[in-house]
Amino acid sequence: MTRVLFWAAGSLVAYTYVGFPALVLARGRLRPRPHHRARITPSVSIVVAARNEVAAIAGKVDNLLGLDYPAARLEIVVASDGSQDATVAEAGRRGEARVRVLDLPRVGKAGALNAAAAQARGEVLVFTDANSMLAPGALRALVAPLADPDVGGVAGDQRYLPDAGDAAVARGERGYWDLDRALKRAESRAGNVISATGALYAVRRELFAAVPDGVTDDFAVSTAVICKGRRLVFAPDAVAYEPVGASAEAEFARKVRVMTRGLNAVILRRELLDPRRHGFYALQLLSHKVLRRLMAVPLLVMFGSAARLSGRGAPYRLVAAAHGTVVGLGAAGLALGRRAPARRLLALPAYFLLVNLASLRALANVARRRGIDRWEPRREP
């Protein structure tokens, strides 16, 4: 039985980390499904939910007003989620008619987004985080695939800003997103990306679905497009820049929140796991948003069974030693933080360990039905 557990867990780990990405990349190359792009300028409403973002919101609004897009076709709706600082005043300080600020009571991010979407007048709703800065041509690139009537939503490209003082976890996060970007290209080339990220994405107004509390809003809004039979594609030229969390503690808390809400969002959208209706996308969703987020469990099973079987052969000893080495290096990377050796050598193990620890906490939250509906943004200076 211990050997069965070892090989079952090992097969699941190998599929999730190696087999599935290889399958996605191969499918993108062998079964392309092109979509049309054109230089179009539909009316756009950019929605920003903000909670105590006084340090960032004025720069964010200036960034959006400076985008390369016809001014008459663009409006900005900032929804303040019960901000207790000067977020509302800072968001409206330019006195621009194109900028509308909703001073809401504390309703949570989902409630703020729903209120802003209800007030928006554009044909296309664009969502972006308060701390994301868009490249000048990002909006044009984002709406270009909407020239294809089969496309209902477009995911932008989130990139992390470089910082010479990055902690090991920050470098690991940046490395992970490099891989994720390659997978998004392949997924989009052959059908649908799994979901969008909150840094930047767009949906047709008529496909917007109200966001319930307790789920990841970008996942819920973007996957509603697929539920309604339209495509969700990736626009690599629609770039949004964000800073990486500077501390392991802040990044751990963010991961726990994102994974908890993400697993709840998959439960909300469980119809998308039916391959009879959604084909290969159902496998993408299961592999990326469920199996990858639960990998800590088979990893623990594999390590425990390998340790128990270490006297039965070299393969078991090798796996036990490799697992212990990765955990040890990851712990060292988290402990050393910003010191140069940690940044250069321990980034990936530190990130790997932090993500899997966060996934265990998130799994416990979901099992106990402990939702995360409200939180305070933690921005680095």
Topology diagram in text:
Blueprint lengths: L1 H29 L13 E7 L6 H9 L8 E8 L5 H5 L7 E6 L3 H12 L4 E4 L5 E2 L3 H6 L7 E10 L7 H23 L10 E4 L12 H11 L3 E12 L5 H21 L6 H4 L1 H12 L4 H13 L5 H23 L3 H6 L1 H21 L14
Helix pairs in contact: 1-6, 1-10, 1-11, 6-14, 8-14, 11-12, 12-14
What is this entry, summarized?
The chain has helices at 2-30, 57-65, 87-91, 108-119, 138-143, 168-190, 217-227, 248-268, 275-278, 280-291, 296-308, 314-336, 340-345, 347-367, and strands at residues 44-50, 74-81, 99-104, 124-127, 133-134, 151-160, 201-204, 231-242. With 381 residues, it is of the alpha/beta class.
Summed up, the helix count is 14
Number of DSSP-assigned strands: 8
Mean pLDDT: 90
In one word, what is the shape?
globular
Note down, in words, how this protein is organized.
This protein has 381 residues and is α/β, with parallel strands linked by helices. The protein has 14 helices and eight strands. The protein has an eight-stranded mixed beta sheet with strand order 3-2-1-4-7-6-8-5, sandwiched between helices. Helix 2 (57-65) links the parallel strand 1 and strand 2 (74-81). The longest helix is centred in the first third of the chain and has 29 residues, at 2-30. The radius of gyration is 21 Å and the shape is globular.
